[in-house]
Amino acid sequence: MRPLTARRSDALQGTAAVPGDKSISHRALIIGALAVGETVIEGLLEGEDVRRTAAAVGALGAAVTGDDSGTWRVWGRGIGGLVEPEDVLDLGNSGTGARLLMGVLASHPLSAVLSGDDSLRRRPMARVAEPLRRMGAQVVGRAGCRLPLSVTGTGEALAIRYRLPVASAQVKSAILLAGLNAPGATTVIEPTPTRDHTELMLAHFGAAIEVEQTDEGRAVRLIGQPELAGRGVRVPGDPSSAAFPIVAASILPGSEIRLPGVGMNPHRTGLLQTLRDMGARIEVENPRDEAGEPVADLSVAAAALKGVEVPAGRAPSMIDEYPILAVAAACAEGTTVMRGLGELRVKESDRLAAIARGLAACGVAVEEGEDTLRVHGSGTPPAGGAGIETALDHRIAMSFLVLGLAAARPVTIDDATPIETSFPGFARLMGDLGARLCAAGNGR
Ligand code: S3P
């Protein structure tokens, strides 16, 4: 356990490059492992979650190397070419790594066992196992289909047409990755669109993949057994990591920061829209395209925020950003209402409960419903002065540290270690911008 304390800070100033996008990093390693030839990845997130996926694709027979300059190379084995791992694949804290790899394994004739940390072993996997079984894989997990779990895949997978019962990019991606080695068309229909990094990257690697709007929703159709060729991938900065300095700069008076090279995929920008609705001053500059993904530079200046109603339909485009949005809401004037948050209960922790508990401990008026959250901001800094249990959840950890930068009294999180999963160097990056973060008990 590594406690960390955030103290009330002055204005944030400067420029900071946030680490690479977690979702895109996992996909670059996995799709690179299924391509023929070399994939060169620049800007890969070198966090714990992605390192676990790199180790897993290595155990499945792809050659993966990373050098000191941050360039990663994957020599893929081609579709259907991965080999049985000799040991358990330990995905640590990573739901994305575990679920996407389940899809890959499902259409390979081999058996593998997946496990992870206490948090990942609690997370539901039936949502992935169910469609993969329809494709011909055998998936056996603990009660409720929890990890450790075994997948025995098939070399003769069936292409399916599947309507997602939950809005989940991970489930969609698992089916598409399994469909890569199934002859014919695999179609996933999503009533509410989710992040489309898998679709964009498969197209970038040469797969035939089409997206169509239908009466049932967004239909993604992949033709199986394409020849994927190794490619160059430039991973943009993670908008879900940028969210922390963006909110910190918005709530600390006088702040002005710049964040170059942040991913602007429209399925990920719900937080920016919501913060703007609240009155935030965020400029999007130099929009461009990098390896099929939209990217831009962001400028953020402090602003007086107002409470808003966040529509439930926006949830998939900001699903990981509710903890930090709740912090912005706690510093705003008026009530912010967030709906459609059921999925937050099955993230790295029960995030809905963790946000409500943490805000209440920091003196913020909050109401937690089954899948709603109401945060009553007074327009003045929260009291703070609390200890926060992070329950192996990196985003809860970072969110409450940001709250502590604005609060009247310091906020201490019990363990900063999980931050490494998605945002290595968080404390240093925030410190360089002027945030007062220090090891607990070490008043700076
Ligand atoms: C992710 C999808 C989302 C998100 C997670 C990353 C992805 O999960 O919360 O952090 O990379 O596909 P769900 O698919 O469970 O919504």
Itemize the secondary structure elements and their pairings.
Layout: E1 4-7, E2 13-15, H1 22-34, E3 36-42, H2 48-59, E4 63-66, E5 71-77, E6 89-90, H3 95-106, E7 111-115, H4 118-121, H5 126-134, E8 138-142, E9 146-152, E10 161-163, H6 169-179, E11 185-190, H7 197-204, E12 209-214, E13 217-223, E14 232-234, H8 239-251, E15 256-263, H9 270-277, E16 281-290, E17 293-301, E18 309-310, H10 322-331, E19 333-338, H11 351-361, E20 365-368, E21 373-378, E22 387-388, H12 394-406, E23 411-413, H13 426-433, E24 436-439
Parallel strand pairs: 2-15, 3-14, 6-7, 10-11, 18-19, 22-23
Antiparallel strand pairs: 1-23, 1-24, 3-5, 4-5, 7-9, 8-9, 11-13, 12-13, 15-17, 16-17, 19-21, 20-21
Helix pairs in contact: 1-2, 1-3, 1-7, 2-3, 3-5, 3-6, 5-6, 8-10, 8-12, 10-11, 10-12
In short:
By secondary structure, the protein is an alpha/beta fold.
Helix content: 25-40%
Strand adjacency order, main sheet: 22-23-1-24
Gap between N and C termini: 20 Å
What small-molecule ligands were found? shikimate-3-phosphate
Percent of sequence in beta strands: 25-35%
Number of strands: 24
Which structural class do the helices and strands define?
A: alpha/beta
Poorly predicted sequence stretches spanning 5 or more consecutive residues: none
- Morphology: globular
Largest sheet: number of strands, sense, barrel closure? 4 strands, mixed
Mean pLDDT comes to 97
What is the number of helices?
Answer: 13
**Rg from C-alpha positions?**
21 Å
